[in-house]
Design brief:
The protein is mainly alpha-helical. The chain has two domains: 93 residues, no CATH class; 51 residues, no CATH class. It has five helices and four strands, in the order βαβααβαβα. The strands form two sheets. Strands 1-2 form a two-stranded parallel sheet. A two-stranded parallel sheet has the order 3-4. Strand 3, helix 4 and strand 4 form a beta-alpha-beta unit.
Length: 156
């Protein structure tokens, strides 16, 4: 939510290229007010946390903002044993960036999920990774129950 207090949006080079090629400037227009450019990353780094994608490493190297950085891995550790995970580990090691593991297995309370749903205001809410999806309609609006492995059209 780029309009929340103390939230900034950095658009990585690879995304800027895609936006320019597709003329989809409308995707970044809503974030203009809180957009941060590469030139400010070094200054912000000591007091900021960033949602990171490995494709952003070149940008962050160029910005010179990785000194003292730490990476926090919040996904299943098994992904780090796959090719892309091993590549990421090597890239972090090359830069001297320690990796902390903080996977919580996805557990969230109903009050926390309600706060999230209120903030996002989805048109449709599809419960996943839960043993009791049938309880969601009692707590949330616009719930659509799907079976594991079921595909559905999200454009409708």
């Amino acid at each position: 939510q780029s309009d929340w207090p103390h939230i900034a949006v950095y658009v990585p080079q690879y995304q800027r290229i895609r936006i320019k090629r597709s003329s989809r400037f409308d995707l970044i227009d809503p974030h203009k007010t809180n957009r941060v450019f590469v030139e400010r990353l070094e200054d912000l780094a000591p007091r900021a946390a960033m949602l990171f994608r490995p494709a952003m490493l070149r940008d962050l190297d160029h910005a010179g903002c990785l000194s003292g950085a730490r990476a926090i891995w919040s996904q299943w550790d098994g992904y780090l044993k796959q090719e892309r995970g091993l590549t990421l580990l090597a890239e972090l090691e090359t830069r001297g960036i320690p990796l902390d593991h903080a996977h919580t297995s996805g557990h969230a309370s109903i009050p926390d999920l309600k706060r999230l749903a209120e903030a996002i205001q989805p048109k449709v809410l599809v419960p996943i990774h839960t043993y009791e999806p049938e309880q969601f309609p009692a707590h949330f609006q616009a719930v659509s129950l799907k079976n594991d492995g079921e595909w559905w059209d999200v454009a409708t």
